[in-house]
Design the sequence.
């Protein structure tokens, strides 16, 4: 096995997790959780998304969240914001976002459903964004990179084409998202075989654990030289909250596996597990992460 | 990635799953579940264990279960029985067991706790068993092969030594059990690097998913040429039933990943998922497998 010495994990729970909760989360609770995550040592946290409030009412306090975070932590960690329109991204940049994850699906029908734009329209917006991004980093977040509810298994060449177009439009890097959680290690290897020779250092993986293949895909990625992943605290954002939503890999499970294999992450995993407990208390949820489940068991014992 | 064309999965739910349930399971319910599993196409099912009823009251109908199964299915699948004493194994052989999984821990303190014998005493019993096994196959099931609650991380050389002693005693093959679920892919690779040159074709892996590393370990094993695994229907046997117990890999999650990578198993996974629903209904449990969780979500939707 060929493992890297260090891996960068971006915490996306405050965006990918919160947005899937149906119960309203108070802004101060969001900020408290982000405080907890900052203490764990993350260098990047995806703190919110600037999308239409109708599409994601949970995120209608995005400006307030970003403003408060940038005010409290001007440089402790990079604030990533998800956006799918130029106007949303521009607003985030104006408020000091360090990175924009600009989401485009690998298939037109899913992009239309998710963003109300064709892939071509989204690419045009991405190009416009890249002209005004200034010092901020723009990451093309490719949704449905492995499968799509409308077209099924995603052909690797569709992803390659979108990636090329995005980089030509000026994106700095790419995140490949297994939106439905159907990616298997062989498919991951096959797609990365195609992309790594061209974009190796610029690829981030956003894997889900819907069918239990998330960590198997992580190992496959590590073996191929991928060193950047996104994950969600406690596995927040998933089945028990928003029916049908995919399950994020739990950040603390990922960090634990990396640390057990002597891979440096810079994250204090004990603090992260404490933060999971804060999340459960504030949001009144039971998180699905494996370590948390085993801890609950030990407590019952 | 170097994947095998076919993998053999042994279903161990009726032993490893049932034994961890605190509520009494009726013998006819056990037989009904084993019927369902037989329909799925398994070539080997671990149907019960012949251990002292005080140690595992749930298994005090072992003789009745084995007799009924061998009567109904004289040759449809191989009946594996777990035992930790010569007398238990002998009784199982007398009733027609096809395979004995004879469990010995890689460390003395755990073996004493689990079987009331030292490792040396267990090896002596194994040697006696191998003399009377006749046509039956004897598998040395090494518990705590990766870590032990008493000594911590298990040195690979301890496992190697026990395996050598077991094979010298006459065992046909070995199962390596990640009893506590702490094995990580690097440790799995390291242990298999040591064992495969000597015992490659005779190694079965029994992995747990307690900390979310089960499927990552499966991929590592496949890459190293391992083609035999044990798993439990729905992930039965674990945290929500018996506090502190480790979580088995869910058989249907494993089969799904293998099939998605075009690896033949001979199992009808749709039937297996239906059988999971039978298990949930009869045992009044909610199984933790990933596919089952995602199905429940879809139903809520």
Sequence:
């Amino acid at each position: 096995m060929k493992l890297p010495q260090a891996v960068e994990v971006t915490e996306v729970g405050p965006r990918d997790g919160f947005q899937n909760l149906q119960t309203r989360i108070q802004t101060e609770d969001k900020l408290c959780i982000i405080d907890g995550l900052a203490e764990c040592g993350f260098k990047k946290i995806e703190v919110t998304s600037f999308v239409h409030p109708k599409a994601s009412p949970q995120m209608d306090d995005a400006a307030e969240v970003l403003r408060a975070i940038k005010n409290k932590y001007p440089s402790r960690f990079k604030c990533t914001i998800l956006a799918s329109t130029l106007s949303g991204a521009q607003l985030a940049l104006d408020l000091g976002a360090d990175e924009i994850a600009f989401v485009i699906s690998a298939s037109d029908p899913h992009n239309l459903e998710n963003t109300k734009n064709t892939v071509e329209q989204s690419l045009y917006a991405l190009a416009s964004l890249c002209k005004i991004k200034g010092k901020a980093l723009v990451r093309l977040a490719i949704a449905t990179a492995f499968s799509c509810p409308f077209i099924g298994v995603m052909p690797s060449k569709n992803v390659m084409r979108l990636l090329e177009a995005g980089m030509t439009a000026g994106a700095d890097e790419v995140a490949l998202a297994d939106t439905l959680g159907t990616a298997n290690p062989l498919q991951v290897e096959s797609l990365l075989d195609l992309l790594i020779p061209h974009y190796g250092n610029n690829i981030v993986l956003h894997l889900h654990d819907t069918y239990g293949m998330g960590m198997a895909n992580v190992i496959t990625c590590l073996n191929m030289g991928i060193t950047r992943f996104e994950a969600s605290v406690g596995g927040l954002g998933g089945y028990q909250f928003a029916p049908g939503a995919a399950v994020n890999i739990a950040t603390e499970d990922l960090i634990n596996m990396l640390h057990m294999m002597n891979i440096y992450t810079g994250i204090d995993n004990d603090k992260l597990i404490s933060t999971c407990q804060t999340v459960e208390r504030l949001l009144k949820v039971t998180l699905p992460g494996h370590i948390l489940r085993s801890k609950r068991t030990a407590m019952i014992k």
Remarks:
- DSSP finds twelve helices and ten strands in chain B.
